[in-house]
Specification:
It contains twelve helices and 15 strands. It has 369 residues and is an alpha/beta fold. It folds into two domains: 108 residues, Rossmann fold (3-Layer(aba) Sandwich); 250 residues, Rossmann fold. Helix 7 links the parallel strand 8 and strand 9. The longest helix has 14 residues. 53% of the residues are buried.
């Protein structure tokens, strides 16, 4: 095999988002010149946080590497372009948030070991749906959707701001306005036109669906998808009481949207995609269901740099819309890899820190050509 170019090694390290406490294993890539003060042996750790390797000839080699990764650990592989690596192997090995880059005639491929979080998030989300107050992102009491500063155990604190005007709140059923707050306002930049079909990923109590439906008008339609039956029932009840007929609420998951191909004009989401275990799959699904020329407008939480591994596995942190958040650049890379173009990022309304790393909300805008 040809020697690995320095730019390839550098990209592999940059896209692995290393932090000083990580246990790292270098399986022949030669990254030592590009890392500083890292723990390069697993030692007594329960698993390795990041493995660098050359793309193998057999799926089993990838599966063996993944088996020794800690939850949320990352596998970063390199190989010459002419080797045509079977990228499906990364998915078959159970890696999520998979990304690839071409650098100097080489592929750099990364993926992370799944953190099983859906069940705990759904439980917190269901409890909120059955309470008298709630949020779009499945948080526990005093969580991410409640205005004000929230302490996240030992992780840090975040100031959550929904970003809706009083006029917007007055447009929707009162119970939806009280129940659905996120980390920004995706409607504000969506530019929804009469007659358009809008999809809200993680629709919660329905606030954004109702706002979208009003802008789409009688000839348009707004669809809300949510994973929690109790939350869907609350939103349907609100629509029925308010006599809103151009809305539909469907049970489903962000990674497997119950929506036909190329059927919606605009996708919105508010502080929800960070809760998905595989964000890459969410954006691939979003790309599938948007019509050519359609738009993506999502608000979500991201980190301003590499995320300490301890945050990644906190159940409370996942439910509070923090532990599942990605570094901003990784989030944007996943949007682009799904096929979206003209990707733009603007800082949104919520902000804080977790384990010393800035965490904040962004609005990501993109389109499908």
């Amino acid at each position: 095999m040809n020697s690995i170019p320095e730019d390839v090694k550098r990209t592999a390290v940059e896209k692995s988002y290393l932090t000083p406490e990580m246990a790292i294993s270098d399986e022949g890539v030669g990254i030592d010149l590009f890392i500083n003060a890292m723990d390069t042996t697993a030692g007594e750790r329960q698993g390795v946080d990041c493995i660098f390797g050359v793309y193998p000839a057999e799926l089993k080699a990838i599966q063996d590497w993944v088996s020794v990764l800690a939850p949320a650990g990352r596998l970063t592989l390199v190989c010459p372009v002419e080797d045509h690596p079977k990228t499906i192997w990364l998915e078959m090995a159970g890696l999520v948030n998979r990304l690839t880059w071409e650098v100097d005639g080489w592929w750099v491929l990364t993926g992370c070991k799944r953190v099983p979080a859906r069940e705990s998030v759904q439980q917190a989300y269901s409890a909120k749906a059955l309470s008298q107050s709630g949020c779009d992102c499945g948080c526990t009491d005093g969580g991410c959707c409640s205005p004000g500063e929230v302490s996240l155990e030992s992780l840090g604190s975040v100031e959550w701001v929904g970003g809706y005007s009083d006029a917007e709140v007055a447009e929707v059923p009162a119970e939806a306005a009280e129940f659905s707050l996120g980390c920004g306002n995706p409607i504000g930049m969506a530019g929804i036109k009469p007659g358009e079909t809008v999809l809200d990923i993680g629709s919660g109590g329905g606030l954004d669906v109702f706002l979208a439906a009003k802008r789409a008008g009688p000839s348009g339609h707004a669809i809300g998808v949510d994973m929690t039956p109790a939350m869907l029932q609350r939103a349907r009840n609100s629509a029925k009481r308010a006599g809103i007929t151009n809305v539909t609420f469907r049970h489903g998951f962000a990674e497997h949207l119950p929506v036909e191909d190329s059927s919606v004009d605009v996708i919105i989401s508010n502080c929800v995609i960070n809760l998905a275990e595989d964000k890459g799959k969410v954006f691939a699904e979003a790309y599938r269901v948007i019509k050519p020329g359609g738009r993506l407008e999502v608000n979500d939480m991201v980190f301003g740099g590499p995320v300490p591994q301890g945050i990644r596995t906190s159940k409370a942190g996942w439910s509070e819309c923090i532990s599942g958040a990605l570094p901003e650049q990784e989030y944007v890379d996943l949007v682009r890899q799904a096929g979206f173009s003209d990707v733009r990022v603007t800082r949104s309304t919520s902000h804080g820190e977790a384990s010393g790393v800035p965490v904040y909300s962004v609005q990501v805008s993109a389109k499908k050509d």
